[in-house]
Amino acid sequence: MLQETKIAIKDFNFYYDSVPALQNINLDIQPKKIFTIFGPARSGKTTLLKSFNRLTDLMFGGSHTGAIFLDGMDIYDPKVDLIKLRRRIGMVFDLPTPLPMSIFDNVAYGPKLSKFISKKRLAEIVEKALRSAVLWEEVKDRLHTSALRLSGGQQQRLCIARVLALEPEVLLLDEPCSGLDPISTASIEETLLELKKDYTIVLVPHNIQQASRVADRAGFFLNGDLVEEGPVYQIFTKPTDKRTEDYVTGRFG
Amino acid sequence: MAALSTIAVMILILFQILKEGLPILHLQFFLDSPKEMGREGGIFSTIIGTAALTVVAIVVGAPLGVGTAIFLREYTRESKVGRMIRFGTDCLAGVPSIIFGLFGFVFFVIRLNMGWSILSGGLTLAAMILSTVISTTEESIKAIPYSFREVSYSLGGTRWQTVTRAVLPSALPGIFTGILLSIGRSIGETAAVILTAGSSLVMPTSLFSPIRTMSVHFYILAREGISMKMAYGTGAALILLVLIINMLAQWMINRYIRHRA
């Protein structure tokens, strides 16, 4: 059966100063699903996420071979508008990273970068983004206070809202719950399931349970290799590779 | 012990200068122009001279220094050009101020024919404070978390937007501190100023007028034995001025930080 593909990765390798971080990755990611990339530390998960929006460009000594396609467009093509690409692919980092400014200004940061927007329109965008990130009710009365005063869970949802304000097509989430308590984690996961209706989501979960709770498909990474990939229930119940089985049953990692 | 002796030295200096100087500090002392080479009258024209010179030095030196630091930190990092500029600023930091004075005299005063003037002196001081501004700005930019930049880039920010909107606002208090230090250095500088701005007591009328700063005035009064009384008065005024500027700046920085947090 032919399936729709949002992101296609073809023979992708990434090196830090000629040390390989990702090796020969081939993977298709479908739209409006949650794809989860899991595996032990240093297996290349974050590098892969940062390759999607080319944040890897900022790293010294990084290089790649192969290609990544977004809707069929090679994102490493020199003709690609990097600014536009990054606005289409939003990223949320492993620790909440509010900028030291007000809640409103944090969410408005992205929209204000591109062009002049009227105050009224900006307020609408901010409200919509905060609502989508399920944060609006908690902060609507203090939009102009510092974002640093929010709790960790609220800060992370603020970071999600900040990304949503740009109305991207893809959301990259790099262990978005790693610094959070179980209740905040639950509310972020609910948010993700809600967002799946409109966005393609690539998630690095902070543990296997999270992956099985929210994801549609999963890919297991180990030492820069994609070991295997498939629907979540299959990966977690009857993986085909011995190494995946060892990892999901908790024998290592 | 070391900390105590530092404070002791500071108190001793303050006490000595203020004890001799405070009795002279009346409002008229600040507002009158010097008469008879400074033996009588006040110090008004030297206050104006100091202010004008410092303003020129900061207006020229601060943007250049901050710009260089941004370039070094955010645009080149470990390139050959970057290393060369950094080596240059390190060298500048070690140059004695009298050498800056000599350079300013040869280059601005004579070569560019600006004469002894506010402009010559201000530009010389700008060159002198450059290394301070660059290194303090670099340090405060360096302290901004890498994640701020990643966030800005990931939201589609250009490098310039990232620097001006995500990095610089957080670095401002540190940059202010550097500029403050530079103001202090400019106000206190004597050797480089005498050689480039002259020591005229006449009220300046333009950027090309020669002037005498408070430090130079103090130096000449004491050195030529014109009036120790007036010298102490000028010294006390100088200390109070620097103190006020420091407190004002500290207040501004605190307000800025509180406003953002």
Question: How does this structure look, described?
Answer:
The complex is a heterodimer of chains A (253) and B (261). Chain A has one domain (7-248): 3-Layer(aba) Sandwich (Rossmann fold). Helices cover 36% and strands 25% of the residues of chain A. Chain A is built from ten helices and ten strands. Chain A has helices at 45-52, 82-88, 103-114, 119-132, 136-139, 152-164, 182-195, 208-214, 232-237, 242-248; strands spanning 7-16, 19-29, 34-38, 62-70, 73-74, 89-92, 170-174, 200-204, 217-222, 225-231. In chain A, the strands form two sheets. Chain A has a six-stranded mixed β-sheet, with helices on both faces. In chain A, strands 2-1-4-5 form a four-stranded antiparallel β-sheet, with helices on one face. The longest helix of chain A has 14 residues, at 119-132. With 261 residues, chain B is an all-alpha fold. Chain B has a domain at 42-213: MetI-like fold (Orthogonal Bundle), CATH 1.10.3720.10. Chain B contains eleven helices and two strands, in the order ααββααααααααα. Chain B has a two-stranded antiparallel sheet with strand order 1-2. The interface between A and B is medium-sized, with 26 and 22 residues.
Report the major sheet of chain A: 6 strands, mixed
Helix content of chain B: over 70%
CATH homology group of the domain at 42-213 in chain B: MetI-like
CATH architecture assignment of the domain at 42-213 in chain B: Orthogonal Bundle
